[in-house]
Amino acid sequence: MKEKLALAWKLQRKDPAKALDILDEIVNAIDDRCLLSKCYFLMGKIHIEFVVDFGSGVRLLCQALGVDNVEGIRFEYRDINIVPEEEVCGWFYHLSRALYFDVRYKESWEVVQYASGSVFPEISSNETKRDILCKQWKSGVNKYHRGMLLHLIVLSVVYKTEEMAETSQLVDFAQTWLDQEEKTRLWHQYNAEVRFASLVMRLEFDCRALGGDMVSEFRPKDGDIYVLGESHILSLVFRRSSFIPRLVIGLKARHFNPKLQHSRERGILLEHISSIRLHSTIIVCAGEIDLRPNNPCVTQKTSKGKVLYESQEQAICATISDFCAGLVALRDSRAAENVIVIPIRPVPTSCKEQLDWSDKTIASVCECIRIWNEKLEAALQELEKIVFLRELCDDVFDKGMDRYDLGDGVHLNLAFGKELANILYAKIY
Predict the structure, then answer these.
(1) DSSP 278
(2) Is residue 7 part of a domain?
(3) Which of 68, 112, 217, 260 is buried deepest, with most CB atoms within 10 A?
(4) 410 with 328, same domain?
(5) How large is the average pLDDT for residues 163-167?
(6) What pLDDT shows up at residue 340?
(7) What residues does 245 pair with on adjacent strands?
(8) From CA 298, how far away is CA 312, in angstroms rounded?
(9) Global pTM?
(10) Per-residue model confidence as pLDDT tens digits over 147-158
(11) Where are the beta strands (DSSP E) in 230-337?
């Protein structure tokens, strides 16, 4: 049976249905608690990453941990001594991550909290949970401890409670070990979290340098203001309680396409959209990743070299068409008061040094951004209650962007977030 489990691991990406069939066969044939737990874990992982069924994935991970549901983690879970601690720690990580994908932020955080007490029962009970997490996972007992800390940094930004409002301590702990060597070691398994944590660190240090002058706060008079998008939303939502973040790491404009299937990012996007309250204002930030080198909008080809489009403009227009269809579906499904689409920012000057882009690559990406903003604005003029934030181009982008460069080659700083907040305030009210 162990050989069949190993085969299921090999097949999980290439043929997830076959892998699940093998795991079902094992589960129905054995009563070995250790092997059963490992099978349930892999079944949950496949449902989360490849079937894109987060609810079933969460249920199966709970079975791996020997509980009926997430609530049972706090009351029923007992250490699975028959499974190595590193594996159990990994199961907690994957469970918390799946709950985050499912926009169950509170439960995601509680699972991480509980993991600290169950995996490290020797720690003193008079310390705060966050101190415990940082102290234990700073030492990096195994790779999952560091993955959990990276995941906690994600949660500290998107799940805003009094306990998690500040990311300073988390960032300070992570900085002590997230050097280039450690980034390389963690990159394969936690590449999204590594990128995100590095970005949050830059924003945190930018915040400290600016002191209290980084936030332009305002409270919505009626309804809520949601910000849906990828990592570029952080300069706007970081420590700013006026906006409700809905962060989908790695989100592309093409993931909005209602016809897109078998995409984990699409599945995560739909869960985040369904969590938005009806009759809200929704700010959307997507498209920058679509315009990076090696993406079809720039190369007109797939990753395998198949030619999809005759020109960059044709590729961009096709992507915008799918994007607009998704924006209409978003507006209608949430009965949104307004959907405000943020244009793509100019390429930061630090891209050449940080990303090692050639002058030719930079020129190509800049041209794609120009075409994108121009074509997207024209397309949105035909749609009701979906608007292009032209004011951002006129008041900020066209006046020079060097002062807003965060220094990582991709993102903009908190001063830009403040400008954007002011423009949105004037637009909404």
Answers:
(1) T
(2) yes
(3) 112
(4) yes
(5) 52
(6) 97
(7) 227
(8) 6
(9) 0.87
(10) 777 777 778 777
(11) 244-247, 281-285
